[in-house]
Amino acid sequence: MAALIAAAATAGGAAAAQVLYVPVPATSQLGSAPQVRLSLANPSAAARRCGAVFVPAGLDGTAPGRPQQTTVPAGGSAFFDATPLLSGAGLLQLSGAPQVFASAELTVPASGGAADLMLPVLSSADATAAGNVAVVQGLRRGDDGTLSNLELVNLGKSLAQCSIGLVASNGARVGSATVTVPPLSLRSFADVLKGTGASADAVAQVSCDQSFYPYAILATPDPARLRLIAPSPSLGSGGSGSGSGGQPPPPGTPGQPVSITRGGVFFAPSAGSSALDVPVPLTPNGTYGVATIEFDMLVGPFTPHYTAILALVRTGTRVTRTLYFGFDIRGNVGKTFIDLGVPVLEPAIKAGFPWTVGVQYHLKLTYDVVQKQITLQVFGGGTLLDQVQGANFNWDLSDNGQGVKLAFGLPGIADAAYFPPPPGWIFSNLSATFR
User: What is the pLDDT of residues 332-362, one digit of tens each?
Assistant: First the structure.
């Protein structure tokens, strides 16, 4: 069994107590339930207490119940078998005296020998900040039974909406999804590369609207080779954390700032004229970090399904065209839908909002490739009524010679689900900046 290693000391000596979190991964692919043993150390001169409580995967961890307590002697250590608390994958919450240090070890009995590995013990310092991107590398899948599980811990106290992108070793995006994770909880995504065609050195790119921690479990037919893959630090993070700071601007020569203004009514859909393209004169091959688009919109009659409002597009062929985002409204059921422009699994941000016919809203969309997120704000009478935010996926905001445009509406019905805005919708006071 692997040696138990104490967690790093709290900087600056004594500190206020905090809750620590031990993710317990799914182990069904090994055919056995997980066993977890905690190692607790107490360098202080008095005996200290520590408690552990388990939150099963997918459940809300904000009210986990009463922890089971153990005493750690003065200047000594204690082992705590957390296995009886477990019911499968989930999150162990540790609380108690701040003088107690903790580490955790996972054991999974398997034919051919037990699988052992150290589990991370997470504090707020280990979390990736909301809206930033974490990267988990080295995912694999093979015909011999090798597979990778992606595990996602929400360290925030609210439900997290997370975007997951899977990228093959050649840079091709092979899968993506938008998922939710309950507060202070864990979700496991088994055999995450299944059906993607990726077999080695794939990467998961993850972003959430709460602080979070992703990692992967790599399982092979040999139990001794069970591995936990932690998120990778970036070169710009100072070697600590996993994307906890803002990401650097995209490489290349920055383009000249662009500003577009169209005062008054600039688009009033009518029969036979239900789309408007507004060219964006970006510096050819220059890179841009943030696009901000604002306009007023008077809501007209609802369409049977989605009403296409606005898309930011780099034009080209069906293969080379880039959809940065497509913003749609399904007014008859009070829904907002933002397509994030990745064809595999069609990731999208979905939210509810009571769009009302005859009401004029002021909309602000911010597409940020530095922070790797998109934000929609809806105002009414100068008051913020709604805000929707999530990770984006297309980070090369540039004109590569094919042109970039703001596409309002649609020239016709697309995929039997996306409709152009009918007469009665009015768009006015456009202001857009690219920098």
Answer: 999 999 998 875 445 678 889 999 999 999 9
CA distance 332 to 23: 41
In this structure, is residue 396 part of a structural domain? yes
Segments forming the whole domain that contains residue 28: 20-124
Last residue of one domain, picked from the residues 124, 152, 182: 124
Q: What are phi and psi of 251, to 5 degrees?
A: -70, 160
Distance CA 428, CA 298 (A): 8
CATH number at residue 49: 2.60.290
Give residues with Cβ within 8 angstroms of 268, minimum separation 6: 423, 425, 426, 427
Per-residue pLDDT band for 318 (boundaries 50, 70, 90) equals low
Residue 404 Cα distances to 7, 255, 266, 289, 421, angstroms = 50, 13, 19, 14, 22
Check: CB of residue 153 under 8 Å from CB of residue 91. yes
| Separation between Cα atoms, residue 317 and residue 336, nearest integer Å | 28
Q: Are 420 and 410 in contact (CB under 8 A)?
A: yes
Residue of 245, 275, 285 whose CA lies nearest to 370: 245
CA 67-242-52 angle, to 5 degrees, is 5
Residues 405 and 279 in one domain: yes
Cβ-based neighbours of 121, under 8 Å, separated by 6 or more: 7, 20, 21, 22, 94, 102, 103, 104
- The answer to whether residue 6 is domain-embedded is no
**Which of the residue ranges 113-122, 191-200, 361-370 would you say has the lowest mean pLDDT?**
113-122
> Is the pTM value of this prediction over 0.70?
no
**Within-domain flag for 4:** no
Pair of tokens at residue 383: 């008051």
Look at the chain and report how many structural domains it folds into.
3
**Per-residue confidence band for 319, with pLDDT thresholds at 50, 70 and 90:** low
Strands 418-419 and 306-314, sheet pairing: parallel
Rounded distance, CA 158 to CA 210, Å? 7
Co-location of 323 and 422 in the same domain: yes
Query: How many angstroms separate the CA atoms of 341 and 312, rounded?
Result: 10
